[in-house]
Amino acid sequence: MLRTTLAAGALVAALLAPAAARADSGTAGTAGTTGTAGTTAGTAGATGIPVLTDDRGRALTLRGWNVEDKVNRGDQALSAVTERHFRDMRAQGFNFARLLVFWDDLEPERGRYSQAYLRKIERVLDWAEKYDVHVLIDAHQDVFGPAFGHRGVPAWATRTDGLPFTPHPDDWFAEYFEPAVQRAFTHLYEDEDLRLAQAEMWRVLADRFEDHPAVLGYDLINEPMGELREGEDLPTAARRIEREQLTPMYNRLADAVRSVDRDTWIFVEPTPIVGEGVPTGLGRIDDRKIVYAPHFYNTAMEAGADYDPAAGWIETYEQAVTRYPEEYKVPVVVGEWGPLNNSLPNMNRFYREAMASLGRYGSGWAGYVWCYGGGYCAVDGAGAFRTNKELTAEPYAEAVAGTVTSASYDSGAGVYRLVYESSRRGARLTELSLPPGAWQVTARGKAVVLRESAGKSGGAGSGSGTGTGEAAGRAWVLAASGARVTVTVTRETR
User: Whole-model pTM?
Assistant: First the structure.
């Protein structure tokens, strides 16, 4: 949402004149476009992977963080999430939040939905709207749910057939392989009454929030797992679970959402095994607005190891994760990523190489997690980036009204460059996000730069514009129909 008044000079009027008609379908553009120093990053559209678009057909880039409260529940649910989260994220240039919500809080008893919890979610969405942050509502589960000491699927919907469960307090992910947890997933996927309950839960959420301006999409279930069969290795089991259980589940849940909401994006995840560079076995989800939403974690780094550039993990992951969106022609948004220990010697290189990789194929990402402290937290108690996390804050194009030719960010020089052909009909305004600092923004071609700061808009008769500003903010490029535009964002040094 544009929250600043744009001066309308002669050039602006001239650029707007041919754009009276509003297009009703998408125009191609850029997804995340990041590079390491001196490296040009590809755009998602250039790989054959479609880009995410907004309701004006502009190509979106999502950069942001997960927002969560896993500790509090019931009357205190979501109390750890505050307005500060969204204010601070936007102040660093981020425009995206993946909001964790829990089925066990929404429906503590079968058929009884908590109106108080829905109001709490709505309050969080209102904060996001205030700061122009897109929200993905994520139906989160960890180790299935409270029956196993975690959050997610309610205890009343947990069926174990009496199989054993042993907690692993020092390795919670190992709990996914406990027989009781695996059987609970099987019942969720296969029992008709549980299928209906899960679908109804999503109908309640989508019906309540379909018209909220902050809501971009629905993530149907976080990190789904399943039951291994005798003789299966983990990759084989994961592909079978994705093909035979997750694909039909996603189609059922998509139908449930569409019964009340026709337009919001639906995000689907593979099993977490994709993080090991294993291509997913997911099949087609029969919906026109599906987003593939894998996570980007490395087992060794999750256990505290440093990044090993020689291992080729990022390259292997990228090759695996791009197969599904290339085959089924759906956008990609990585729903979680980021190591536990981000201060080890090779982590600076990891962040630079990870950002470049994510920009080659994705329409965006949500890091894990925006909180104030240690561990996975993006920032400390004072709100300052923790070591190497500052590398996630770059200039980028939030929404491009046109088709991108190239995009790159040279982190060493502090220069972002975007080349695109503007739309011939419909949306004409391209939005840029600028992290804190002083940035000069210029546009060559039949275009003008408009800046958020008062008095910083500019434009010349040649069709170029320049603006500068000290704080984190936004810039907009207004281009003539079909113009070839080059936008350059340069960090100013004192």
Answer: 0.91
